[in-house]
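request received
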Amino acid sequence: MKHPLFSRFARISVIAGLALGGVGLLLFTLGISPVDIGVTLARGSILSLQKFGHVLTIWIPLLLCSCGLLFTFRAGLWNIGIEGQVVFGAIAATLLLREENLGLPAAATLILAHILSFIGGGLWAAFAGFLKNRGGVNEIFGGLGLNFVAQGLILWLILGPWKRAGVASMSGTEMFARELWLSTPPGWRLAPAALVIACIAFAATAVLLGATRFGLQIRATGINPTAARLFGIHPGRTGLLAMAIGGGLAGLAGGLQVSCVYHRLLPSISSGYGYLALLVVMLAHYRLRPVPAICLFFACLAAGSIQLPIVLKLDSSLAGVIQGACVVSALLVHGLQKRQRGEL
Amino acid sequence: MDPATFLAALVAMAAPLVLAALGETLTEKAGVVNLSLDGTILLGAMTGFVVASVTQSLLLGFLAAGLTGCLVAALVAVIGVWLGQSQVAVGFALTFLCRDLAYFLGNPYARQQGPQLATLPVPLLADLPFFGTVFFTHSFIVYLSFLATPCCIYFLYHTRHGLTLRAAGENPEGCWARGIDPNTVRFLATLAGGAMAGLAGAAFSLAVKPGWGHPQGCEGIGWIALALVIFGSWHPLRVAAGAYFFGLLQLLGIAFQDSFPGIPGQIFQVAPFPLMIFTLILIHLSRNTKNRYFAGFVRLFGSPPPRGLGRPYRRP
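response:
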């Protein structure tokens, strides 16, 4: 009899071996040394404290988005609209941060801005949920559509009403006032407050989903909405709430990108972290515990790949290739196991 | 700009979109969502361009692109159809894998001069006034896009194989009961759709937006094609009409850029998505309404999705 820990370990090594082996083989046939790539990626991510700071600035939004996705996946919803929710959170935070004479102390403005970003992302997600409940629009297509609408909206804002004095440019809005930047100690790449927020969000997600009645309701909705109704759970409403919380966390990620990374609104403010978080949660097989580690792995790849064009004259998209290969091989392995168990 | 040139530009620009959207229609009619379209198109564009540059043969370029599309679709089908994993999940992961693979592998060929599809005016027909310019002075991929719509309609609604394909999407259990394995049908339909998406990619890099780069310029087209399939509610004619409508919006966006400097051109890129959502809502409401006129009106331009769409079929 196999020990469950062993079988899990075996599965992880098969997935990693398949993905990394495949990418390694590809690089080998192209005449590129996979070892060079590995060394460059590691040097650019974990082998220096300053670079590791950059890794963490990617890890924070990724973890927040992944937590949000855990809520929606548990409720059986495919929240592909997360990218738009990040964007909308960023817009909501900017709405407050760009006001010059608000008459509030800077700390209060910052706190309000982040609450607003949570609400903004949550509302955008709730809209997708509303379209699903009342309009019969599948959350995948609705969310995808709303992503592009949010992208159009942010472009319009940056090139239109919120344009920099004089010129409208794709480089974003005017920088915020200095006291409205989330404070970063000298020599650091990231604001400690953001790190704390991300960790709290993860803990709250774990507790809410794993140890509360609400978490159980969400799970029941996801597994069997018809049966959930018999227990007095309203699947539509529970799903909507899961969407709103998930979207709120994504919006918070967007708000943090604005307040502590870029200090202004950019057209590419989400950096694709919403979509990347979908890959993270899929690789985690929709479970909570592996998420922080996978986020860290993906963040290391993303940060390390910046060195590839500089050191090896290769395109930095190799990081995405490795991430995608991991997820596809995970799906393949899970499918094969399902077939082996005779569930097909 | 005179209307003939404008329309000629429109049909040329919409050609790859028509191919990709019709391919996805075939796939979805069989009950499979191939979400990897955006990545497939980019990977097809890269493969087509690189193979055509290296071999100096446009035909090989298009063939390689079609084959690449097939290969990606095969992955979607194996994992999503035969191994019973979520089709959306595997399609989504492949979208990003293919996109980044295209950028990575195509990097050495970026911003290079490459072969480009020449126009092949149809003898005699090209000399027709107005229609000659609009329809008969294009490259072969545009002619292919003209042919694709009637061919799709004929195949889906007037052949036995088309009926089998629709059966696999509407009622896989019934299909199985009639002695046909719906999963095989779905597999083949996914391959065909993937090949068309790959061709659409090559149509970009070898004809519509010649060349390769990071970005290439066809990013996002796959998502638009996916939206158009829904906007056209799974009928090839409406899907193709949607593709031309989108081409029109894009051209108008370029034309209006000077007259309305306040509206950025990107807004027109976004237009298909609210329209898609609106169509879905209308179809949903028409199904639950008691108002017969409203339901009849919606049925004119919309129909419900294939009933087995996205649902894996498990053999009894």
